[in-house]
Amino acid sequence: MAESPTRHLDATDNKILGALDAALRPSVSDLARAVSVARGTVHARLERLRREGIIRGYTPEVNPRRAGFPVSAFTTVSILQGQLNQVLSDLAGIAEVMEAHVVTGRGDLLLYVVARSNDDLHNVLQAVASIDQVSELSTQLALASPLRRSITGLLRQQSDSDG
Q1: Where in the chain is the domain with CATH 1.10.10?
Q2: How far is CA 98 from CA 27, 39, 160, in A?
Q3: Between 115 and which of 93, 103, 120, 131 could a Cys-Cys bridge form, CB atoms 3.0 to 4.6 Å apart?
Q4: Architecture per CATH, 11-62
Q5: 128 near 137, Cβ under 8 Å?
Q6: 118 pLDDT above the threshold of 90
Q7: pTM for the complete prediction?
C-alpha cells in the first residue's frame, strides 16, 4: 500500500496547518444537529468532556510521510532509575519525538519518532542517546501503517451495544 511521495510544505502551508491546529472545532449547533440533542446539552457535555480530559483538542490529522517526514520509527528507551521526569523534559526539546509512552517490559519508554531521512533519524536518535540519563536505545523502523484508528469508532460501537 504505497503512499504518494512526500512534498515540501512551504511557510504558507505550515501556517495553514498551524491555524487549523489552533482553530479546528465544529460548532455546537452542528454537533447538536448531528446527534439530535439540544445545543445546551451539547455545550454542557463538551465542557464536561474537556474538563475531564476526555477531549484533548481539535486538531487535523496530518500525515507525517506526506508532510515531509517519510521515516517513522518506534524507539524503546531504557533510563536510569528515578530519572523519568528529567528524560521527559529533555525529550520535549527534540521536535521529532512525537509521542512518549511509559511502558512495562524491556525498556522504560516507547517513543514514536519521525524524520526527513534515515540520516535525519540517525541524528534524532543520537540526540536521544546523548541524554545523560538514557542508558540504552532499541529502534524499529515503521515500514507502513496499514491500520490506524480513532478511539471514537470504539466509543460509537460501545454506544450502539449499550442501546
Answers
A1: 11-62
A2: 29, 35, 33
A3: 120
A4: Orthogonal Bundle (1.10)
A5: yes
A6: yes
A7: 0.79
Backbone phi, psi, residue 157, to 5°: -60, -45
Element (H, E) at 79: strand 71-79
- Which CATH number applies to 71-142? 3.30.70.920
Cβ-based neighbours of 117, under 8 Å, separated by 6 or more: 70, 71
- The 10s digit of each residue's pLDDT in 48-68 is 888 888 887 777 788 899 889
Looking at per-residue confidence, does 52 or 71 come out higher? Answer: 71
56 φ/ψ angles, rounded to the nearest 5 degrees: -100, -15
Per-residue pLDDT for 115 more than 50?
yes
Residue 52: the pLDDT is 85
23 pLDDT higher than 70: no
Instruction: State the span(s) of the chain assigned CATH 3.30.70.920.
Output: 71-142
Task: Give start and end residues of each alpha helix (H) in 52-136.
Answer: 84-91, 118-129
Q: Which residue blocks in 24-162 are alpha helix, DSSP H?
A: 28-35, 39-51, 84-91, 118-129, 151-162
